Amino acid sequence: MASLETPVCDFGWKAIDFDLLGVDGKRHNLASAKGENGLLVMFICNHCPYVKAIQDRLIRDVNQLKQHGVNAIAVMSNDPDEYPEDSFENMALVAKKLNYPFPYVWDETQQVAKAYGAVCTPDFFGFNNKLELQYRGRLDASRKEAAAPDVRRDLFEGMLQVAETGQGPKDQIPSIGCSIKWRSE
Predict the structure, then answer these.
(1) By the number of CB atoms within 10 A of the CB, which of 54, 58, 68, 159 ranks highest?
(2) Taking every annotated instance into account, which residue ranges of this chain make up the domain Thioredoxin (predicted)?
(3) Which pLDDT tens digit goes with each residue over 84-123?
């Protein structure tokens, strides 16, 4: 399992639209996902230990960001043929079990992950209300295990700044996680 780090935030990069099926049976796109003050597009999956380590914190932060007009959507782009734990059926089970407060959608063709330049799970893309990229950092200091409960909440603080000012913090610490599991072509 390769661990990868996300690139530095490309401030102002415009979000690319998508139309993906969610585990709720509905189709989701940028317009349906966007909040009044921004949108967090998260590339996650079911099997990755980095994602598993932060699920509770991610749910907490997304719920709190919603109160500030920032919505979130989670995209699963891995190849479930190679990683059955990431199947659409298992995505639905995980979302229900954890009561995800955001749509969990399947990027079956992997085109959305490629368009966004997603490299790992978790990979966070935080956009302002004009859908301009302002955050591409980590959730917090967690790795394959959750960090201490009182660590700095990088993603939450960064997206709160985006909600309030439209601009993300200039200094961001990259997210780290498992590589996206690309289909062999």
Answers:
(1) 159
(2) 9-144
(3) 999 999 999 999 999 999 999 999 999 999 999 999 999 9
> Residue 60 is encoded by which pair of tokens?
């907490």
According to DSSP, residue 86 is labeled G
User: Rounded CA gap, 70 and 63, in Å?
Assistant: 9
Residue type, 114: K
CB 48 within 8 A of CB 178: yes
In the chain, what are the domains? Answer: 3-179 (3.40.30.10)
Q: Could you tell me which residues come within 8 angstroms of residue 169 by beta carbon, excluding any fewer than 6 positions away?
A: 135, 157, 158, 161
Q: 36 to each of 20, 65, 69, how far by Cα in Å? A: 21, 11, 5
Distance from C-alpha of 145 to C-alpha of 164, rounded to nearest angstrom: 31
Closest by CA to 39, choosing from 163, 147, 137, 157, is 163
* Mean of the per-residue pLDDT values of the chain: 96
